[in-house]
Design goal:
9-stranded mixed β-sheet, 18% helix
């Protein structure tokens, strides 16, 4: 492989706005409507071929009443390598047009697929699909040959946190390891006895996200590709997942929780199984390990991990960091602690001298590199802005206004690049190629344009960052989005939107809902109060033992600051909304202050006592409040919005999925009944078949339309 191609395919990064979109001024024709949110395509899971000439990736889009994921292929050969040279060549970069190098669908019409993975020899692509009644792993190539079925895969509905890689090629490209489920029962349990009428429950994690957990456990399987004969390598009452084949081809690393009662104690470790089915444990720590990745030279296994003994399968306060261990588990090293940010998705460069990973930082998500031998992590982001860069490019790169959502690196520590998927506040997800490494040229080039038509045809609002000091001097980050067509001589209503988690992070990503709010004439305020990720461990711990304490005061200080900075916002026309933890905070806010004229609370928590036993993740209460409800009743009730429902005056609409087991619909019912009995204007909108967050296209549009009507009724 020549050095240009090495450089081409190498590291990771993503463009906030594609350069091509900047170079050709947008001619917007209309503003966003609720129905337009279904036009946003989601680009993801980029995988660069071993020799760096092709990239396969996924595109998820709405077709009729379903979300359909398809595989796409784009060539990244000589044309792109000429744009990512050791020399700059700015004119070639400016003249780049994705239309000259169009992406195409990999599979014949009618195929929906996911998880594309190249064979190490670059000749084949394995993927997961259900086609003509067969669900499992299929193999094809770039030559459009008819896909061949290799192995059946059985899925479980059990909720596995950070499930990781579901399949991995052997180094010789002859075999594929994969995850599939089997029926296995505890001999001392009644699980699986008889039928489900009546349904006998005798385990803690008996719920999945939208139903009851099935009786399946996931295990590691192996099959040859040319002459498939699937073999089960692991067994037991465990959920094995997240695979990585050793470069020698003799073992497969995976993640599993082998505690005596995995339901009661969330403690996953790194294991390995050889091709004869012998399992050995590599790590044995108090915290949780995730995402193992074997180094190309076989000397190390990289992974992410937490260290606290009490954690949760849901939104954990503790930031994951990047670690390495030798294959024997005798020497472990934490690599990203000095960064003090939440790390994910570690991947090796080809010479095993660098690990690339993603981490959120102050509303952005960047790519970083770490040296497995030690030393502090470094951000690998093209911020070397040159004099001949357009002003808007210089601004976006220097300020880092983007969120990377996926990447595929290539190259080595001396010459690396990456295929990256990202979005920005005014640009939906698409794919780009970028340079990183010691000789970073700062080049980012658009590679796909799946959302170009949407972006050209609509007027999007660029948010203004709004940093301020909270009540105790803590720095808080936020953004204010003006209404579309804003005029200085008019007053506008404002919606405060609150993210979930509590350890989520708002930032520089495209948010179609916010664009719809702005198009309807609303200012939109969104903040990262304490408890959010992206600002270090101390900040992320800001909600421990007090949901609605400091974070509530941060939010109210942010509203005050927005009113001070932007006098065109009408303080008498304020709305508040949020989903999940954002719904909890919405419920909390309406019981603490009457300043909001309307509220929309989605998938919300209202009572931490009853939430504990109805949610599939009870350990969220353990991790956030330090114990069980029977030991912590007063503390949990103190921070439950329902306790203060007699103080609520704000007209509130509740939105909830009827099959939500993350936050059971009874949480909305409790709050709704409290308001209704007190004579506060309220409605409860229940969506059949939906879980935590709406997925059916018709429901998504309906919920947004109802939200706008509710706010219009009280704020316009």
């Amino acid at each position: 492989m020549n050095s240009k191609r090495n450089l081409l395919a190498a590291t990771l990064l993503i463009s906030l706005l594609s350069f091509a979109a900047r170079a050709q001024p947008r001619r917007p024709t209309t503003t966003m409507t609720p129905a337009d949110i279904l036009r946003v395509a989601t680009v993801g899971d980029p995988q660069i071929s071993p020799i760096g000439d092709w990239v396969v990736y996924t595109v998820s889009a709405i077709e009729g009443d379903q979300i359909v994921t398809t595989l796409w292929l784009v060539r990244v050969g000589e044309r792109l390598s000429s744009v990512l040279p050791t020399s700059r060549q700015p004119e070639q970069r400016r003249n780049w047009d994705p239309a000259r190098n169009p992406a195409r669908q990999l599979l014949p019409p009618g195929w929906s697929a996911s998880n594309p993975r190249w064979s190490p020899d670059g000749r084949s692509i394995a993927f997961v699909s259900t086609h003509e009644g067969q669900h499992g792993i299929w193999v094809t190539g770039v030559d459009r040959r008819i896909p061949r079925f290799v192995a059946a895969v059985r899925d479980t509905n059990f909720f596995i946190t950070y499930a990781g890689e579901s399949m991995a090629w052997s180094p010789d490209s002859k075999s594929i390891a994969y995850i599939s489920a089997t029926e296995e029962f505890d001999r001392d349990s009644q699980e699986g006895a008889g039928n489900d009428d009546p349904r006998l429950i005798d385990r803690i994690q008996y719920k999945s996200r939208t139903s009851f957990s099935d009786r399946l456990r996931t295990h590691v399987w192996l099959t040859e590709v040319d002459q498939p004969q699937p073999r089960q390598l692991t067994s037991g009452l465990f959920y094995d997942h997240a695979l990585s084949f050793s470069p020698k081809g003799d073992e497969i690393a995976f993640i599993s929780n082998h505690e005596a009662d995995p339901d009661a104690n969330n403690n996953s470790d790194v294991f390995a199984v050889n091709l004869q089915g012998q399992v050995r444990q590599i790590t044995n720590t108090a915290g949780c390990e995730y995402e193992p990745k074997w180094s190309p030279d076989g000397k190390w296994i990289a992974y992410t991990a937490t260290k606290r003994e009490v954690t949760t399968i849901d939104s954990v306060a503790e930031d994951r960091h990047v670690w390495v261990t030798d294959p024997a588990g005798e020497s472990r090293r934490e690599l990203s602690a000095a960064l003090d940010r939440r790390a994910t998705n570690p991947k090796w460069l080809k010479d095993s001298r660098r690990i690339i990973f993603m981490a959120g930082d102050a509303g952005s998500t960047f790519l970083y590199s770490a040296d497995p031998s030690g030393g502090g992590p470094k951000r690998v982001f093209p911020i070397l802005v040159r004099r001949d860069d357009p002003p808007e490019l210089s601004s976006s790169l220097s300020r880092g206004r983007l969120q990377v959502t996926g990447y595929s690196p290539s190259g080595d520590a001396n010459s690396a690049g990456a295929i990256v998927v990202s979005s920005s506040p005014t640009s939906a997800s698409d794919m780009a190629i970028a340079t990183i490494g010691p000789s970073n040229t700062g080049v980012i080039v658009e590679l796909t344009a799946h959302n170009a038509a949407l972006e050209r045809g609509h007027e999007f609002v660029e948010p203004e960052e709004m940093a301020f000091k909270s009540f105790d001097g803590t720095s808080i980050q936020g953004w204010l989005m003006k209404p579309t067509g804003w005029r200085a001589d008019r007053k506008y209503p404002m919606i405060l939107s609150i993210h979930g988690g509590p350890h989520g992070m708002y930032g520089y990503a495209f948010n179609s809902t916010f664009q719809v709010y702005a198009a309807r004439g609303y200012a939109v305020l969104y903040l990262n109060p304490r408890g959010s990720s992206g600002s270090g461990q101390k900040f992320s711990d800001g909600t421990i033992n007090e949901w609605g304490g400091g974070d509530y005061r941060d939010l109210m200080t942010g509203v005050d600051e927005a009113l001070r900075r932007y006098p065109w916002i009408d303080a008498n026309r304020l709305g508040v909304t949020g989903s999940s933890y954002g719904g909890f905070m919405t419920n909390w806010i309406i019981t603490q202050t009457p300043r909001f004229r309307a509220a929309v609370s989605a998938a919300s928590i209202s009572n931490l006592i009853s939430f504990y036993s109805t949610s599939l993740y009870q350990d969220l209460v353990h991790a956030e409040f330090g114990g069980f409800p029977w030991d912590n009743y007063d503390l949990l009730w103190q921070w439950s919005p329902l306790r203060y429902v007699r103080q609520a005056q704000t007209p509130t609409m509740f939105i909830h999925g009827e099959q939500d087991n993350d936050v059971h619909i009874t949480q909305a019912e409790e709050m709704y009944m409290g308001l209704r009995r007190r004579g506060v204007e309220t409605v409860l909108v229940r969506y059949p078949r939906e879980g935590h967050g709406l997925r059916e296209p018709r429901h998504r549009v309906d919920a947004l339309e109802r939200t706008l009507v509710w706010f219009d009724r009280y704020l316009r």
